[in-house]
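Recap slide: alcohol dehydrogenase, sequence and predicted structure.
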Amino acid sequence: MRALRLPNWKSEPELVEVPRPEPGPGQVVIKVGGAGACHSDLHLMHDFEAGSVPWNPPFTLGHENAGWVHALGAGVTGLTEGQPVAVYGPWGCGSCARCRVGVDTYCENPAAAPVPGGGGGLGLDGGMAEYLLVPDARHLVPLPEGLDPVAAAPLTDAGLTPYHAVRRSLPKLLPDSTALVIGVGGLGHVGVQILKATTAARVIAVDTRDDALALARQYGADLTLRPDSDAAERIRAATGGRGADVVLDFVGADATLKLGVSVARTLGDLTIVGLGGGTLPVSFFGVPYEVSIQTVYWGSRPELIEVLDLGARGLIKPKITTFGLDQAVDAYHQLRDGTLEGRAVIVP
């Protein structure tokens, strides 16, 4: 079968022929219906090097995956061939306290995981191929009626990651509160939708691109701004001088972190989602009182079930552009150049 593989760190992916996987005991092979192209894959191609993470190339790319059950290994129950499923991407040990409740992202025994701190497309073969081997059936979530694999694939990360970030701040997202979304890209535009679907908070979106701001307005943002020199002042004015109760930074660069902390309301949340490499100085007088600052990584399996339900009901719908496997490298180039609107999904 054909697969898009990363041969080495700091290299371009290659479309090559590889053997079709066969499931062992407890494992499942799915026929891939869609595999999302994520901005974090660009870091794998261009930034990471040996020692950056506890695994190395070569492996097949694609950690946002959905498709149909193709073959079941011995002992697998609860699934049938041909059943549409989404793949929960982070693959932990399965036995620690975190993994037992479906939070494989924060597995506390990574040495016992299929790949430490990774999953399909992150150290092990991912979904940018015709078939994908899933090492444990518990990583598969049946798709609800009305949601096909192409639409479901980006929800497994581009939906799940912002959903987890929003969900952890729900107590602060009251009807009289404000959420600030910085960066309306592949994750941010879904974050706007999740905020509008699950809270009554006002939503302000910030981006450098006019088309991204138009997309944010399309999905219900109450106010959109470019990050000009007066952006903080305008955000303060729009919130009656209080600032944003929850800031979701989907960029994570120095400039966006500086903006986020400058407009965060006391007792608020500043959640860093993006991998922009920025830093934020924290000191007693350096941030508003009792602002909680945290990073988030992906989400839990129970949260993925909730995200897929929202998707099936049409409450969140990532903007998708589809590409064939032959076009996958071009999809990544568009993602790198900032010309891709929404999310790219590779359809083998």
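The chain has two domains: 2-157+299-346, 161-295.
The chain has ten helices and 18 strands.
(End of recap.)
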